[in-house]
Batch of 2 targets.
Target 1
Amino acid sequence: MRSMEDYPPFSKRKTSSTGLSAPSDKSGDSPEPSSAINTVPRKFTQLPPVSALRSILSTYFQHCQNQPYVYFREESFFRRLDNGELPQYLLMAMIAIAARFSTDPFFESKTLEATEAYGRTAWNEIFDKAFADDHHLLEIHAVQATNMLAVVDFTAGRHHLGWVKIGLAVRFAQSLQLNSEPRVALSYEEEDERRLTFWSVYMLDRLSSCGAFRPPAISDTDCSTLLPTDNPDVGCNTLDLRTLGEFYGDDKTDDLDSFAHTILMASALGRVERQMLQKQGCNDPYPPWDSRSDFAAIYSMLLSFEGYSKITDVMFSEAIISRYILPDGSIDHAAAGHFVFSTMLYHMNQCLLHHPFLLRKRLESCRARVPLSFLREILRRSLEHAYQLIFTLRTVQKHGMTFTSFYGYAMTVAGVICRLFAYHDDEATRNTAKQLYEYSLEFLERGQAFWGHYPGMAIALKNFNPDATSARSLVTAAHPPELSRDSNTEMIDNLLDYGWLSDPARYKSMTVDGFQISDLSPKSLHVDNVQDGTNSATHTAILNASSTTANTIEPTSRVMPSSKPLSPQRENVSSEHFDFDSHTPLPDELNMDFITHADLVPEDSWSDFIAAGKTTPFSFPPPAPSTAMWTQMME
């Protein structure tokens, strides 16, 4: 094997790969004291050996590419790697993101240490290059690496630092004019990389702005570069974000792929954030049921997207199986990434737009009498899309697909809605909502094996115990639609704030099952990669904070057809365990388009239910047929 000095990627760099200094604290982005930094293994202060480096970079493209961010094409990346054209800080940032998914022995039992050390070292180099000399030419790799490191910080509980890095990534991108088409002739590969990088920064800007006081930094009106595509061989999209609105329903939108769909739903999320989370809807002169209102315009946009994307034409789990299972039975994570993410964002946008709590706050500014039929329809949509969101993410979980950092927030949004409906007057509605709530908690428990902010979300959702009367009033259509004020109900604002959910400081004095939680960063929790098989007492306490049972799910797996049902020990409880044909009389306040309701059935009877060929008139897609049962096998 070649020495690191002889390896091509570093032959053109002024700083040798073996000469990197130990990470310092000068950038201020580390919460640990210097003594903790000195305990970082020496091997994590420099790039890994060639074999481990290529292994972790391959892991990046398997589990991080299109999840949802993408900055370059895999083939182009490895060609430039071999030609020595990539900076070390970019490679280290990629390692910091991908280490949590790695099975390489180099990172065994040390994925968190590797993430922290490589992330810190990469940022120090970017900081020096970007701010040491005003005449230093900024390069696109600085935008890419800064965006990656923002995700690392945000998900590790350092959301203030993550927020700063997101802002820097935005300014870096704008200084390179990535938000517009290049004025000079560039190769198609360069143009493609510019578009991919900008839209990844755009997505992170939108996703991190889910909260009351974090407006997006990028305005849609400033985005004139063309929309990205998942298929570079077919050419680029011919539409940009500003002109796409003119072609809703036009045949031009039929050519848009899942990556462009994800961008469109991220754009819609920005409008939903301003309307519902950042309370700009209260300034709308028209009530939300008026067709001239911003609320109606956003909902119309979502419906138009549903129409031309055909996102609801095929059952989600069926689409995954038919489109993204490779011949060897493995899942093509990268190919499925934007299809999954755009579907998730669509339902999450609907959940936030029709959230019972947020909508009631919006109605407080309305002077006109609120139509009860409007309230009933809002409640119907909120519960329906909460179900669809949970179903989508549990399908991801069931098939061993990649957990992205943002899925936890989306599941928390759905879990809050289900928690409120668990206090509904109708028994069937309560039971369904309670089960969906348990599913959301279980999903968050699974995800903490990879992302350090998932445990905090699980605890926050578990500890959300609204007053029964207040919660019931939120999910009941009645006059007047007053918003009951109590501390637990007001807690919903925090539960819908991505920054608050990712902030470990809120647990300084919290005790869970006798354990003091002082910091929910990955290092303090000792939440190791799922393949390490080790957990600390604190980690165990967080697992026990929920009443659900989490089964092991392997991040690297292949999905194979099986003629045998899954054993009780390996079967993932799924939101498919509903009897959609069970007709339940509903009270007037929920008797909207709910012709039927989803009653829970015992898990072991679900196979018989679907084998009988029953359908689902609940407006949700039916479960997969019994012949499509899948089991997970380690490669």
Target 2
Amino acid sequence: MAKKAKNDGGGFDRISQFPDKILCRILSCLPTDEAVRTSILSSRWRYLFTSLCSFDVDISRLFTDPISRQGFAKFMVRMLYFRSESLEHFRLKRIEDCYLDFGRLYDWICAVLYRNVKELELHISDWDCDSLDDFEGLPPDLYICKSLVKLKLAIPFRPPPKEVPSCLLAHLKEIEISEFRGDIHLLEMIAYFLLNARVLEKLTIHMNCLEEQKRFSMTNQVLSLPRSSRNCQVVTDIS
């Protein structure tokens, strides 16, 4: 008869007896740093976080010194590339300092695209350092990603690429853009998305950064852009 796992209080740890798949689902509901801390509390859970289907990474929650953050960044890249399972969701948010350069950020994005991520969410527009000017946009790996169906972005946009990503042509169904300020490159990218995303169902643009008159003008301009998908709904939000 299999032994039952005991918890620290002398009782039985019923949760740890769940199948790995269910435990991974539980950990995937937590921010990544909390999932990692939870995993190391028990030998039964120790390596489960490497098989998570969803990652929610908030750099500001992880470490306070640059050396530890760089070490975690390298660990994340190795873990993402060498896992066997596909990813459902990856969110990277609140990068507010220069402890991680954009090269490392590119490594993470490329790794999750390599693992056939379905939903990708990036929040890096609040990077408050001069290196933001060096950001060249999303990596070329996005152009050949066939799994991506949902993309949420708060990033500094650059002119649209010449090559149309395959995910836009046949897979991408939902795009959400935050912190829209009427930037010409971002407007060009929105036009690019609408023109090339053939199965796009919804494009949401958050315009809470604009004054009312500017918001009204930008909304009319966006709604007048040609769309490749007849079923695409364009939503402008101010919340």
